[in-house]
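[User]
If only I could read backbone structure tokens as easily as an amino acid sequence. I have put the entry right below:
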Amino acid sequence: MGSPSGGGPRPTARTTVRTVPQAAADAPETVPRTGDTRTIPGPRKRRIHRLLPRPGGPSRPSATGSPAVPVPAGAPPGRGRGRSMALSSVTATVVLTLIGCGTLILHLVQRQTGTAGLLVGLGLAMVPLPFVLGALAWLNLTARVPLRHTLFCLTWGACAATSIAIVANNWTTSYLTRHRGPFGGLLGTGIATPAIEELAKATALLVLLLPFGQRLRCHGRRTGRPCAPLLHRAPAPRRPRPYQRRPVGPHARGRLRLRPYLRPLPYLCPAPPSGGGPHRRSRPRTLAAGVVLGGMTACGFAFTENALYLGRAFTSDQRQRLDSIGLGDPPSLRDFDSTVQTFVLRALLSPFAHPLFTALTGIGLAVTLTTGRRWLARLAAPAGLLLAMVLHGTWNAAADLGTDGFLVVYGVLMVPCFVALVCFAAWARARSARHRVRGGRGAAGHSAGAA
């Protein structure tokens, strides 16, 4: 039934009389008044999500001066803030640890070589560094490892790994020599030293995979204890999952139990199964990433080790020169034969020795994380580390075989391994470029079909 059109009762609006200054202050944007008319201010634009109430709890004042918004009791700080604080604390801890290791290694090298020997060793060790870093940077165009990870590996190898190796090698060599005599010294040089150094360098790759930045769930509501702000993560609503059978196939069998406890790096993730064909295991990018990570760690380690050996050789040559000819005659290159020999051996003939050893460990770890076969995932990383130790021990033993024996080992073992590494880098670069071209063609075809 419609309302009468006559003089029925009409709703009246209650108006309040305000003074002109007060009305002008309350109306933010008004049209200039003309005569006795007065404009009504329009509604202010507000964000809707700021006005939506939250279920129960105390209120929080809004930024626009609107009524207070209720906030749940015991609400933690924002996720982004807590995660940034956790990551910054982890980063600060890692940086301080590396700085402490760097200070320790400088003190150890300076105590063995002296100040002059330390400066000369650092200067000569810088000569092969740009070539090795340039080769790894070229390979990193395929691996796409972030800069912070490469810097961490380089610093770890130069500071932490060398500190561990010097302390552990000195204690192990002295222990074996004291109990086994000369045979203990050979045992320490050929077996103990490669094992210690390769384990110290491989630790950098494992540290990158540990989930330091992840936050733990807070069970404060269940136990009644307050939650730590840095370890709190608001529990996500659980959605019911339909019952699914356990997946079968090589990709499903390859998921080891240790993988969920590792940090999922984008360049060391399992390759997804391709459309209808066989599963693609160990992409070139993942293998190249293992080589880059291992090579960066070994590059830093080789730099500090070269500085130590070159500084020690320079100090020894300087003492022999002072004992033989004194300070009267000017020095010549013949007075530093040991320094020149060490520089040619370590900086010119074998600058890629340590990166080659640790690259095997990186390749084994990459295969473990990306393969779809359980037996290969279990054996790849230990096999790569063991192969790196064997190759390192053979290289150390070749130094005690004289010049002829060293050249034989160098030509038969080191040169083919280095050529194989170069061929692998070229293959990875070509395979990556081929995949990029195929991806571009596929995208172009898809857009053309859609058009």
In short: Strands lie at 59-60, 69-70. The first strand starts at residue 59 and ends at 60.
